[in-house]
Amino acid sequence: MPLPFETSDEPRERSPGGTPPLRSTRLVVGVGGGTGSGKTTFAHALVAQLPRGSASVIDHDAYYLDLADRPLAERERVNFDHPDSLDNELLVSHLQLLRAGRSILKPRYDFATHTRCSEGVSMDATPLVIVEGILVLAVSELRESFDLRLFVDAPADLRLLRRIRRDLVERGRHIDGIDAQYLATVRPMHDAFVEPSRTHADLVLSGHGDFGVALRTTADALRHRLRLE
After folding, report:
1. Is 194 exposed, middle or buried (0-12, 13-18, 19+ CB in 10 A)?
2. 167-188 per-position pLDDT tens digit
3. Strands of the sheet with 203-206, listed across from one edge
4. How far lies 26's CA from each of 12, 70, 104, 181, in Å?
């Protein structure tokens, strides 16, 4: 499974002492796919395959717009599966800062109240940054920020089961709300934005079961590209 940059002869940047600079982001990978496809699992498994401190993950979900100025009932009617529900401009600016070797304050989002938490999460630049989310390949300004674009695919029934488990356990949601949101926005927006975004992917990976060879091959290619030991 060759990756688009594996044959690149681009010389690696070096500091005056001859050591590659480790404190700026040199490669950004976007990992998209439907809800429950396994993209988050793949992103974190990929980081675990690489040397400690060489890679980090940004979840697109952290960049949902703050709806604190709206009544809770109105917040719950927002279409969170549409690209306009996310602060994509802020995420793009954060990726630019990381490429420049700057730290960022990544937002934290409260999914139970649909509001942005008052305190963010400080994040330092790493040589590799992975951005994962259902819409990362559907937003043109984000796609242009990625050096590699991956799409994780899985059957719809498996994705739904995984989403229900996540929303119940991790996000404090109720089953009635999960069901209503899936029918009203998740499935229609998947068809309108997520599924078409796979055409922008350099590689499409199967999220059905163990990533196995795809994970190891991708990790090896990234390690080689970044000259990581």
Report:
1. buried
2. 888 777 788 878 888 888 889 9
3. 55-59, 128-132, 27-33, 148-153, 203-206
4. 9, 39, 16, 38
pLDDT tens digits along 63-86: 999 999 999 999 988 999 999 999
Three-state secondary structure call for residue 6: coil
* 39-49 vs 212-226: helix crossing angle, rounded to 10: 50
How is residue 119 written in tokens? 């305190």
Dihedral class, residue 20 (left if φ above 0, else alpha if ψ from -120 to 50, else beta): beta
Residues 6+ positions from 50 with CB-CB distance below 8 Å: 128, 219, 222, 223, 228
> Which helix (H) or strand (E) segment is 94 a member of?
helix 88-99
Half-sphere exposure in the Cβ direction for 66 (13 Å, CA): 10
Q: All domains of the chain, ordered by start, with CATH?
A: 27-223 (3.40.50.300)
Which pair of structure tokens corresponds to residue 219? 């990790």
CA separation (Å) from 129 to 5, 37, 78, 98, 123?
A: 16, 20, 29, 9, 11
48 alpha carbon, distance to own chain's centre: 16
pTM score, whole prediction: 0.86
